[in-house]
Write a structure and sequence with these properties.
Structural class: alpha+beta
Radius of gyration: 17 Å
Strand order of the largest sheet: 1-3-2
Helix content: 40-55%
CATH topology of the largest domain: Arc Repressor Mutant, subunit A
CATH class of the largest domain: Mainly Alpha
CATH superfamily of the largest domain: Winged helix-like DNA-binding domain superfamily/Winged helix DNA-binding domain
Number of helices: 6
Shape: globular
Number of strands: 6
Number of domains: 2
CATH architecture of the largest domain: Orthogonal Bundle
Order of helices and strands: HHEHHEEEEHEH
Length: 150
């Protein structure tokens, strides 16, 4: 889905939840769309938003990110640095996607495949627990860092 399609979808979600797609929210969402692979922190989102719309304050960006998280437009993730980062949820995704985190360079790669379907089935049947979502981050050494050691 392109940026316009995503904006229209989010505008509908906001409206259904009683919010409007204000210029500030749109600017924040556009920054997330333009930096989709970067897993930006709230401060980094704010830095990019300020370039486009200098009048927007940090509190507005935080509120917008929280609204987008509550509406499941974005997922709030935390890796080994303890900083909350924001990741756009993929269109039609049933679950949050998985990540590969390099312990040496800090690079984060996304895995689009849902690898835990069978695990969910076991959890639901064995523990009588209805799984709504899951998050999985593999911690290791990326291929670039491995190549540096060879």
């Amino acid at each position: 889905m392109n940026a316009n399609g995503t904006l229209l979808k989010v505008k509908k979600q906001l409206h259904e939840a009683g919010f409007k797609l204000t210029p500030q929210r749109e600017a924040t969402l556009l920054v997330l769309l333009e930096n989709e692979k970067d897993h930006l922190s709230a401060e980094e989102v704010f830095f990019f938003v300020k370039r486009k719309s200098p009048e927007i304050g940090l509190a507005t960006v935080y509120r917008t990110l929280e609204i987008l998280t509550d509406l499941r437009v974005v997922d709030k993730v935390s890796f080994n640095d303890g900083v909350a980062r924001y990741d756009l949820r993929k269109e039609g995704a049933k679950h949050f996607h998985h990540h590969l985190l390099c312990l040496e360079c800090g690079n984060i790669e996304e895995i689009e495949d849902d690898l835990l379907g069978e695990v969910e089935a076991v959890v639901e049947s064995r523990y009588h627990f209805i799984v709504k979502d899951h998050r999985l981050t593999f911690h290791g050494i990326c291929s670039n860092c491995q190549a540096k050691h060879e």
